Amino acid sequence: xxxxxxxxxxxSTASAPLTAAERLREKHEADAAHRAMVEDTVDEYDIAHPxxxxxxxxxxxxxxxxxESNAPLSEKAAGKQKARDESPQAVAGAKxxxxxPLDTKSEEAFPVLGSGPKPAGPAPTAMAWxxxxxxxxxxxxxxxxxxxxxxxxASSRASTPTSGILTPASTNTSxxxxxxxxPQHMPMPGRHSETIQFAPSQLLARDQLKKPLQETLRxxxxxxxxxxxMKPGMNGSIIFQGTGPVDATRQALKDLAKEVGSKQTVKxxxxxxxxxxxxxxxGAVVQDIQKRTGARVQIPKAEGTASPNVDDDDSLTIDIxxxxxxxxxxxxxxxxxxxxxxxxxxxxxxxxxxxxxFFPFIAGPHNSRINAxxxxxxxxxxxxxxxxxxxxxxxxxxxxxxxxxxxxxxxQIKISGDRQAAQxxxxxxxxxxxxxxxxxxxxxxxxERGRHQFILDNDGATLHDILAxxxxxxxxxxxxxxxxxxxxxxxxxxxxxxxxxxxxxxSSMQMSLVDIARQHANAPMGAQAHARALTRYLQQRQAIAQxxxxxxxxxxxxxxxxxxxxxxxxxxxxxxxxxxxxDINSLISAHPPERxxxxxxxxxxxxxxxxxxxxRVRDEYGVHVLIPEEADNEPTLVLVxxxxxxxxxxxxQLPRQRPSDQExxxxxxxxxxxxQHILSLIQGQEDIGSASVSVPPKYREKILKFxxxxxxxxxxxxIPVQVxxxxxxxxxxxxxxxxxAAVENxxxxxxxxxxxxxxxxxxxxxxxxxxxxxxxxxxxxxxKGENINKYREEFDVDIQVKDGKVEITGPKAKAxxxxxxxxxxxxxxxxxxxxxxxxxxxxxxxxxGAKGSQVNQLQKKYNVRVQFPRTAAALDDDRSIADDxxxxxxxxxxxxxxxxxxxxxxxxxxxxxxxxDELLNLLxxxxxxxHTSNVSVAQAQLPSxxxxxxREMESIRLQTGAQIEVPGSRESADPNGRVQIQLKxxxxxxxxxxxxxEQKIKVFDDSITRSIDIDKKHHRALIGSGGANIRNIVxxxxxxxxxxxxxxxxxxxxxxxxxxxxxxxxPKALVDKVITAIEAFANQRExxxxxVIEVAPDKxxxxxxxxxxxxxxxxxxxKIGLDIPKLSSQGAARSQVKISGQPADVEKxxxxxxxxxxxxxxxxxxxxxxxHQTISDNGQFFRRLRQDHKVTVDHAGHQPPQxxxxxxxxxxxxxxxxxxxxxxxxxxxxxxxxxxxSGESQEEGxxxxxxxxxxxxxxxxxxxxxxxIERAKNQxxxxxxxLVLPDPRTYRFIxxxxxxxxxxxRRQTGCKITVPRDxxxxxxxxxxxSKEGVEHARDMILDVVQNGGRRD
Length: 1352
Hints:
It holds the Pfam family KH_11. Residues 262-341, 345-434, 439-507, 764-827, 831-924, 929-1002, 1006-1083, 1087-1158, 1159-1270, 1277-1346 form the K Homology domain. There is one protein chain. The chain is extended and about 145 Å long. The protein is built from 45 helices and 44 strands. 28% of the residues are buried. The chain starts with 19 loop residues before the first helix and ends in a 6-residue tail after the last helix. The strands form 14 sheets. Strands 1-2-4-3 form a 4-stranded antiparallel sheet. A 4-stranded antiparallel sheet has the order 40-42-44-43, with helices on one face. By secondary structure, it is an alpha+beta fold. α20 (606-621) crosses α21.
């Protein structure tokens, strides 16, 4: 190539004439371009290794300046680059031999051999799987030369051979232009040349070679198509050059390295989380690496390096050892590092060397520093909140200099995200930590514990404010430590400012003392003892915590046994302090000494009483048992009377009123019974005995497990034996305490057990080995070794599983038993089946159920494992399968072989088949009920759609069966003021709900709002009694008669305001008519008069009627307003009734009212007592007489007979089958119905009925009464029906507005209907009447419920 520059760049120029030899070389090169060689033919199956000539042709020629550059070179340019570590003479020697080494780091040039020596230069930046750079970029065959020192986050334990190894280089036949005057190398076209260079330490000694080196070379050259030559190198190194076809050359050099190279050992640091991927399934990956490279790869066992945070910490590393010759070791190292690079694109790091005292400064006030670090980087940084020390207190303040802060293993900073971003963030934090070590000091000051709470606050906001204001952080002691010292940390020049701030905050608190013993100074057990027992009881009952929350206070209880019993109450607000003291005194007064009883019980029985009797004593006698802490070893139990409560009574509420004498007597009776029960439980046991047995300390844990195993099925009435050991670790004493017979029995068993263990020690070396299918090894081992550890503990042997073999080491008998168990497990697993179901991710959450309820039920029912795809986050072992459910889009699936739409069912074949079928049925149901739709609605319409108490929306839900999600009030609307209501259910349910909602939305969207001014004095009359007048106006205008619709249509101003504006909303035609009617009413009221008549107060009830019915009827009939004095009226006004309206209407109403209240002589009828209840119909008959004929009834002081007892009412909550709330609400069959015959009253005699009213009314009432008596006589018996609906919330539809619906059903069926008030307890609707009437009433009720309160 005539345009190439000479390597030395000094003896030639581009314009110099060419010699004859140069012209001949150019001709040969031109001819070679048209002569295809076998080696140049592209192998379409070998994409990773294109022929060298193809690579050389594709690469541009290097510029002369590249010779001196540190940038990576192309393969051609590498041929011009002199070796950095070689002398000029060596370079010249290489040129004389016609060999120019290429770039030793080029994978294209030499993909299977190592990289060449790295030139001296700056040490690379420390990197890792978080802390160090992948070893693929390090120099030196063994990964030693040029390695940067690892950071503290990941220590390097690599041991490498001596430096000096030079890795292979390769050349192509196309040699760059040589300067004039230098002998020219004329390569053969298509030939390939590569070299490897060994330091003396990397070659076998002459006496270790199987044959002389020259004979080895001849043997390799004889069997290979390549030719290998040996040449001397610098510093005693030896260069081997291979020439020939690419593959043959490389294989010959590999064979040579294996024959003459010494054994090399390389240690590669690998993230612990990548270890499984290097091993591969059943070791497939590591075995392939060893087979291809010929090197031996040793990976440490998981047991020795396992950590609970392996998947959450990529800075934890292990050293993988590679053994083999230089070439094989380098090939294996490259393969391993390729796997590392693939698996660590994102990392999780932990900073373990950072003291927790630095955390507030690292995070900054309100996490400002961390937020700045995260901004613009794909990284998340978690700095734990550290405001209370636990386990490791801060260091003591030094007399001079800075304190030595130590890291705490329980508190670590976590960094996760992109590897480069995580490394940068970690480096920045570590630099900040170094600065903090040179700046941060501390000061400690004692502050009362009660004041700590107000420095900390619930959300820690005060601490952030202190840090922002003063530059100092505050560390509080934990509640469990008996210290008041509070630690302030910060720079020396800011420490005083921070300390003053803390003192100011603490001194702003107020403290009050409450003497608990004062109220009960005469307690029989002593005031102090009573106060301490009561304090313990209230603390256990969470009363102290409740008081602190209620009054925003901090209560410090006495800590010493013999000291003061005062409670210290700290508070900010003086009023809260007074209220807290008042409530505490109320609690103390409600618990006098008579409510507590002390009893002495041997501490040995405390645990048994707590486990077996405390619950029963509380339920049967209403007594709470307060048991001392085990560490106290006190014999005194405290019994506190709380009272027997009914089942499902909820959480016990502490009393706050002083008990009466009767209650104190009840206390003493309950406490006495509870004490007798506890004493009988103890006295019924055998004498408690104790015994000692000699047990070597190494068997202590086994003894405890042995005793627990023998007593785990002990009956509740028997007291277990307790085991304790000597105080020192080397003591052989083992003490047993419990029932004498049991102690004696266990003494013999433990002695025999110890002897058996000693005998087993002699057989610990026995090994039993047998085959176990490798594919079942994971089942035998279990999650994190759970199963195999269980077998090890059960049989007291060591079990190892490897390469299809199980090896059991331990006593022969135990090993054989374990072997039988494991073989049985293998046979059981063989019956296992696995089903993979394709289920779209959007159905996973509903199929899993809340907290995994549905999936867990399936697993338990069929003894199978159901695996949904997991989320990207690390999972805890104790998490439910529901928490492992994923939505589509998981970034890092922890089950890489499970697709996001795959659900795996694994277990015994029968159970797996049934679980699969049930899952598919559940999927079908979920799909059928997962139709969704959105309805756009004005945000202002939401209250009317929801209705009062959600009644309107609930009616739509019940009517259609669809799920309706209404947006909350805090959700913002779109620019048009509209929000989306989501519907979900079957297609039919969604369509019906959407149709109903759209109808309501259309009415609202078509509505207008107008306002009119009507004098405030007319508003009350315009509304009318109970809203009757305005209701009539709206209904007559074509509006709805629903009370909620009425309230929205016409809105009056509040009664206490001066506003006269009435707002009318609705369709335009309706609004116009309502306004016209209201204005006409107001005009009419302007011309009305008011007249006062005298009516005796005892007659007022005749004008009012039941629920105001008579009054409303009069006002509607005569178009007047009736003002009846209230019961609180005094004097003459008490009997003055005002009539307002048009003069003519007032006169008519006045005449009618005077006629109503005129005294009438009563007419008496004798009614058989046995028919009284039937005729009265729960008072309905009396109401009809008053409403229809203005006739009242009394019985001249006679007591009405009791209702006759009907047949036994069915136990709806007991044996009868209740309908399910999940049943299809569209069906009328989802109810419980039972009909029985009622009994006939056995009452004898008669009862007077005195009818009072106008003669015409009394006559008609008499006629009605005679007919009712005749019907009662002819009616032989009645039927009673009991109806229970699936949803008690629908009962209100049966009653209707103001009882209108149930009154209609009663009139049409002639039945008495009683709707229970306690609808949540499964109570039934009672229907009494003829059998036909009862059946008709039931059908009408079901029709009303089906239509959501409206009948067709």
